Amino acid sequence: VGLQAHCEYLPWLRAESVVSFGSHFGTFPFRTTKARKGGHWFSAPIFNSHFSAVMMKNTGRSRQFSIARREGLKGYRAGIVSGTEWVKTALEETGIDVQEAPGVEDNLRKLAAGRIDVYIDDEAVIRQALENGPSSRKDRFFVLDEPFSDDQDFHIMASRAFPDSHHLLARVNEGLEKIK
User: How far apart are CA 67 and CA 159, in angstroms?
Assistant: First the structure.
């Protein structure tokens, strides 16, 4: 489609902010939410995934339970990656203590240290971190059987303030269609 992209790695909240203010065209991967729809456009889905939770094995709080029913987490301290607003909102609405950290490794360290009881993130991200981290990780953590969320679409979130962004997004969508 003749577009050339420049990628810059930014923390989630900063990425969302620079797109909102129009200094960058877009960021990914983001879910659509009511709050985001008001100030952004979204591409066609680029992939779908679901969120799951990981816990430490062999602690007094380790157990399989229905995480889809958020009430099962009451009394637990839940860790998330900063900027995962839809998870934060879903947990806080149920009265669950949410603690944010900059990344996956930070959350796994907090979990290992007992500073959080459960860490919630994209299941593929969790499984990759457990598989590719130190070998002892697989022996210390487990992923809950039931996912935290159903499969959800993730998109490129585009700025409404970036020059000609609506036209650029249409071209991005053309490219996504060709890739499929």
Answer: 34
Whole-angstrom CA distances from 85 to 91, 99, 122 are 10, 12, 13
Residue among 149, 80, 88 nearest 117 (CA): 80
How far apart are alpha carbons 39 and 161 in whole angstroms?
9
HSE-CB of 166 using CA atoms within 13 angstroms: 3
Tokens matching residue 153: 């679409």
pLDDT, one tens digit per residue, over 49-107 is 888 989 988 776 666 565 556 667 788 899 999 888 888 988 898 888 999 999 999 99
Q: How many CA atoms lie within 13 A of 48 on its CB side?
A: 7
Tokens of 165: 């962004």
Chain center to CA of 67: 16
Report which of 152, 157, 128, 154 is spatially closest to residue 141, judged by C-alpha positions. Answer: 128
SS3 annotation, 27-83: EEEECCCHHHHCCEEECCCCEEECEEEEEECCCCCCCCCCCCCHHHHCCCEEEEECC
Output the pTM of the full model.
0.74
Nearest to 48 by CA among 157, 149, 164: 149
